[in-house]
Amino acid sequence: MRILQAHNRHSARGGADEVLEEEGQLLRDAGHVVEQFCLEPASATGQSVRGPIDAVWNVPATRELHRLITRFRPDVVHVHTPFPLLSPAVFRTASRMGCPAVTTVHSYRYSCIAGTCLRDGVPCEDCIGKTVKLPGLRHRCYHSSTPASAALTLSLATHRLSGTFSRHVARFIALTDFAAELLVRDGIRRSQVVVKPNAVPDPGPPPASTGPVSFALYAGRLVEEKGIRTLLEAWKTVGSKLSLTIAGDGPLRGLVEAAAATHPSIRYVGWVEQAEMTELLRDAEVLVFPSEWYEAQPLSILRAFASGTPVICSDLENICASVLAADAGAAFRTRDALSLADTVVKLTSTPETLRRMGGNGRAAYEAHHTPQRSLEGLEGIYADVVSERTG
């Protein structure tokens, strides 16, 4: 099969970029032919979303996609992230040229102009179910900018009202049941939505525990919505009992560095490459995931599953559902530092529980999140939409 991947990269490398590359390699290794059409972020090209044109209908992008489809003749066009510069117009181009288009919903951008369903630090669903996302515009939810928020609001409304999403997207690929239901609540037909979880490379079976509790690990971007402040506040209580290693980078790096300089129980290692991250996860007793927004499907949690490392996470449904269903960790009250501290201390005081949860996480990984499972899911989706188009 021939697959054309399309993607709008963002200024900070994230999970969508990793999934794009890993799925592309998976497909190539399985004998499929893959090409990519990627736009660099606005910050790298000198462009910005100052008005409706970039976000609603990127004419140069649709022309380039038309040229690529004519030359490459793909069976499927798989759009990972069309926002903001690629624009949803690419779905129409692909569909009208006879190529079924599918899209992975890496965030909540089809339903929320911010993409996070988060406002003022708490989950927000004010725009869910609204064709025109006026609350998002009113609160300037996209980059705290009225013009940029207006552009994304107009883009979503235009493509909803004109039928782009209903007639030219063959499948919305949700990563979790929660994300799938949110799409349906927002007006996407249930028949258009399919759930295919993310996958991560297999680090191999986890080693046997060799000693007492060593450290807890946070791995991810250092941004407000990830719950960094809650994490640091909790460690004022936990620190005497368990050390914390923080790996990552972002706007709150200075805050983390200051905490590490003040509290000997906190170690900051900065951004690390994947091989080092794998070793950190193997050595850690727990992964702490205090995020304060719905997330999509965090790769760090899946890597913890693969490594046999229990997860302590916030109790937002889309984050904790898979952890609790697998009995692979525990949840604390979101944004509650005392609840987080209490959960960490209680769970890490029982090594036998940690071992059991780690094994359960590894079993969940093998059942749902291996590269082979991901490949099977992609191939099934592609076969279905091609069959529908040709049948």
Task: Chart the SSEs and their pairings.
Elements: E1 2-8, H1 15-29, E2 33-39, H2 42-45, H3 52-56, H4 59-72, E3 76-79, H5 89-96, E4 101-104, E5 118-119, E6 122-123, H6 134-138, H7 146-161, H8 164-167, E7 171-174, H9 177-185, E8 193-195, E9 215-219, H10 228-238, E10 243-247, H11 253-262, E11 266-270, H12 274-283, E12 286-289, H13 299-307, E13 311-314, H14 317-325, E14 329-332, H15 337-348, H16 351-368, H17 371-390
Parallel strand pairs: 1-2, 1-3, 3-4, 4-7, 7-8, 9-10, 9-12, 10-11, 12-13, 13-14
Antiparallel strand pairs: 5-6
Helix pairs in contact: 4-5, 10-15, 13-16
Give a written overview of the molecule:
It contains 17 helices and 14 strands. It is an alpha/beta fold and 391 residues long. It folds into two domains: 2-199 and 370-390, 3-Layer(aba) Sandwich (Rossmann fold); 215-368, Glycogen Phosphorylase B (Rossmann fold, 3-Layer(aba) Sandwich), CATH 3.40.50. The strands form three sheets. A six-stranded parallel beta sheet has the order 2-1-3-4-7-8, with helices on both faces. Strand 9, helix 10 (228-238) and strand 10 form a beta-alpha-beta unit. The longest helix is centred in the C-terminal third of the chain and has 20 residues, at 371-390. It is globular. The model is unreliable at 44-51 (pLDDT under 50).
